[in-house]
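Bug: token stream looks shifted between consecutive jobs. Job 1:
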Amino acid sequence: MNKHTDRFSGNSDNLPPGFTIDTLENTSFQQIYSCFQTAFSDYLLDISGLTQSRLITRCRKNNYNPLLSLGLFADKELMGFSLTGIEPHGDRLDSFDIATGLVPAFRGRGFAQIMFGDLTRKLRIKRVNRFSLEVIQENTPALMLFSKAGMQITRQVTCYQIDREEIPPPGNTTGLSIRPAMVEDWPRIESFFDWRPSWENRIEVVQCIPDELDLWWALKGDKVIGGLAFQPDVEWILQLAVDPEWRRQGVASALLWQLAQHHADSISKYKMINVWDEDQGMDGFIQSLHGEIIVRQYEMAADLSAD
């Protein structure tokens, strides 16, 4: 999620008088959200449903680090921001652009260029290896600028929406049961993944916001053969995976039916975000449910350890 308009270079020493770039450790979420609303008022997607509390949850979910997140201040008033998530992955330390924006009056003046120059220097000092983000494919100016900044497309992903009425009741699933899952057991679902989920759908999300999620296992007897993680507040299916040996046998459909029944009185549509375009099996499954494409995105990343 971004409203970038400049390249990732520059130095805050070059700011005009009255402007500063600083970390967000002393900036309230109320200030950040107010700036966010203005910066994203003309975004390609309607984000009016992203309330302050949902932005806070989004930051928790993505391991927001205010010490490595920056704000552009004009006479101490926040006019732009870059919210950064930081997380270890094995012996690596990776970062993610949760949201970056500038209020319209300050775009095209080099501020994002300077802010990102400062940010990448801070990330390198902290020995962060990788910086990644997502860009809507139709956002040509941002895509060109990120590319010039050294970021590369790592894959193409699609975001879908599924109507509850399109989810059929399960067929012959004798011996199959759907039960709530425990947070501490959830990492076992990774053995069912064919590809690495996007940052926002990664396995660590369950540890970041455990109280915000519904988790279900599909079991054949006592054997776990599939699972579904759902974030009701934003109607978001984070993970849906089935053991390869049990695919095309109604397991995923049974999990979705459980989801639809559980939220029958409150949620009518479900989002599946950042499905890898090369996963033909998942694409076919979503199409069978008449899933509607919301938007197509690129994942992009830069190797910060290269310099």
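Job 2, same session, no restart:
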Amino acid sequence: MAASPTPESKLNLLLVDDQPQNLLALQAVLEPLGQNLVTANSGAATLRCVLEHEFAAILLDVQMPGMDGFETARLIRQRERCRHTPIIFVTATPEAMELAGKGYEAGAVDYLIKPVVPEFLRVKVQVFLDLAAARHQLETEIAERQRAERKILSLNESLEQRVRERTAELEAQRRRNEVILNSAGEGICGVDREGNISFANPAALELLGYTIEEVIGQPQHALIHHTRPDGSPYPREECPIYAASTDGKTHQVDDEVFWRKDGSSFPVEYSSNPMRDERDRLIGAVVIFKDITERKRVAEEFRALNADLERRVEERTVALREANETLKSQAAELKAFNQVMVDREQRIIEMKEEVNALCKELGRKPEYPPVWRKGPS
């Protein structure tokens, strides 16, 4: 029956024989490999073992009462998890060579005839142990890489969601600011041909910080438009508001500032439209303006957001490029690993031929059936 499980660092080898002395012999030969040796004394016990454990290789006796080795092997192969588990038949029957073909049809990877040379058996089993360890390592690396890829994907999705939320917040803020500006109304004031203020609406007075008595009859340019944004003087002759009252044209500006009563300034967007009387005579200009401080702030936030998005895209591009290089490196490693497996298989064939040659020199029957060599590709 099966031995108790051992630490996960060891690989499982299943030894199957209905004769206790044969199992003891196999254990003695394979004990130096330092792996977990599980034993079974029948085909039914073998099937129970493969249901409970995963094995790096199975050494299976051919002649057993009830279910023989061939039937046991075929049932093992029906399990998906055991479909590729190496099975080595071990037999002492006189017609062993004739049964070799039947063994390979049942799913065996090798067919040994007792008595087995211990050194050769250990070498054969060690090859399958190495293959199992390499396959486990590869599966572990693939699983780790898949976990890392899922984590990266999750982080990317989280980042994209945060970017979408932040963009939506900024857009909502922009709309709120726009509603606030529209609700507050635009400042409107009129100037005569000499440039003196003739009227101003409540929104204009609130923006500028004056009362109506403080602005009526005062020179508009000297009161609110006397200095450029950089602090340099702004000549009245260059003022678009004054120009509209003299040249009869509409002037629109969005890169200047108006000055408040307290000496502070704010960026404005304004249009200066010529004002005419009922006879179409030019009598001054109407100035419609609004504070665009919030618009500029939002625009700056959008510029900062765009710069941040570009940086994130660049970082993600670099990460994907690095991941691509890693995949290329792993593909190269896998190719090298496949070549190692091919070389090992070739070495096993050469060892079988060497053993058969030695048997021939000793006058014994060949240890192994003839092995077909694949010609050069």
